[in-house]
Amino acid sequence: MTSPADLSLVDGEPADDQLSDDERLFDELIANEQRIEPRDWMPDAYRKTLIRQISQHAHSEIIGMQPEGNWITRAPSLKRKAILMAKVQDEAGHGLYLYSAAQTLGITRDEMMDQLISGKAKYSSIFNYPTPTWADMGAIGWLVDGAAICNQVPLCRASYGPYGRAMVRVCKEESFHQRQGFEILLSLMQGTDEQKQMAQDAVNRWYWPSLAMFGPPDDQSPNSAQSMKWKIKRFTNDELRQRFVGMLVPQAEILGVTLPDPDLRVDEETGQYVIGEIDWDEFFEVLRGNGPCNAERLERRRTAHEDGAWVREAAAEYARKQASKTKAAA
Ligand code: FAQ
Q1: DSSP secondary structure, 121-172, as one string
Q2: 100 closest CA partner among 92, 109, 91
Q3: Which ligand 1 atom minimizes the distance to the CA of 215?
Q4: Which pLDDT tens digit goes with each residue over 3-19?
Q5: In terms of Cα–Cα distance, which of 88, 102, 257 is closest to 180?
Q6: Contact 244, 273 (CB under 8 A)
Q7: Rounded to an integer, what distance in angstroms lies between the CA atom of residue 265 and that of residue 276?
Q8: In the chain, what is the straight-line distance between the N-terminal and C-terminal CA atoms, in Å?
Q9: Of all protein residues, whose CA lies closest to atom 24 belonging to ligand 1?
Q10: Which of 59, 60, 72, 285 has most ligand 1 atoms within 8 Å of its beta carbon, as the pocket-test mutant?
Q11: Does the chain have fewer CB atoms within 10 Å around its N or its C terminus?
């Protein structure tokens, strides 16, 4: 007969009496919904997963400034410029909180930046699509920030303290971003026929990529199961995607836009929305670096990094002088 301890070995996990005190404490904290903090012991794989997810998230915020940054000088009024500039600055702030959260796990900012500009690191697929019209600013706010909120509200309860706490403020700001996008689309939908068409075209462009943003379907998501056990992720990619579509449908009705999915319907038995087929080939191509704007986004990031070298040098020199003044005064 197989004892429960043997069964857990079959599962690939050590039996309880083989766990070290550190491992047992870690498991207890997770089971009791308590937070893991930077100085706590944690399994190597947990640390690596967090560094992977948090750094990718930070890179997404930083690269995500580009599609909208493209419109700051061309926004249709001073008010729209000011709002867009504030939004893009918020994304920079989110990137910085997230880089700081990742640094608490033992990776340096320089290492993360090298991974990004060398093209080794992933960042969200969504930021590799172009923004040809002003209506794209509305569609990004409504759909991309909307998807980001759906994905990130559960991350406020992530088991790693610095990540969960960073997410609280990020979500508050994303919620403002989503409303400003909705309001841009609403204004356009109350305008001329051309403006209405421009809004609908932008929704058509961003709808499917925003659904893909939640990540591959659950049966092709290698990281989900373990991340959910560790309570980093609280829902699977498909669960969140489903929730997002349920949120969009009534909002699309208010806007008067059509979601470009002829197969979208409610399943009568489950009451859940059933969506058409997402183009996963396109998604994986974007991840391989072959999306419409991957090369341009990385090139711009590289140039910005090189152009910013003198700022980093000046800041380091300032810090050095301050430190020597403090030392001399002591
Ligand atoms: N793009 O096993 P899973 C924003 C990768 S911030 C690129 O399911 P996981 C704010 C994934 O990394 C948007 N790669 O992975 C804003 C993994 O590759 P790896 C970013 C993707 O980690 C708005 C592989 O596929 N948000 O929008 C994508 O369990 C407007 C297998 O996937 C976050 O990062 C993708 N879409 O779940 C800014 C949220 N999806 O690393 C400016 C935090 C998957 O094994 C303007 N992250 N991959 O080589 C997460 O919640 C998770 O990491 C997921 C992926 C859900 C993204």
Answers
A1: S---GGGGS---STHHHHHIIIIIIHHHHHHHTGGGG-SBHHHHHHHHHHHH
A2: 109
A3: 40
A4: 333 333 444 566 667 88
A5: 88
A6: no
A7: 9
A8: 71
A9: 221
A10: 60
A11: N
Compute the distance between CA of residue 24 and CA of residue 125 in angstroms, rounded to an integer.
37
Q: Ligand 1 pocket: which residues have CB below 6 Å?
A: 52-53, 56-57, 60-61, 64, 91, 122, 124-125, 140, 144-145, 148, 151, 213-216, 221-224, 227, 233, 237, 287
Tokens 């403002």, residue located? 176
Tell me: the pLDDT tens digits for 212-240?
Answer: 999 999 999 999 999 999 999 999 999 99
Q: Which two tokens stand for residue 93?
A: 């702030």
Q: Which three-class secondary structure state does DSSP give residue 174?
A: helix
Q: Report the run of H or E that residue 265 belongs to, with start and end.
A: strand 265-266
Structure tokens at 282: 């396109």
Q: Classify residue 329 as exposed, middle or buried by CB count within 10 Å of its CB (0-12, 13-18, 19+).
A: exposed
Return d(Cα 301, Cα 287) in angstroms, integer: 17
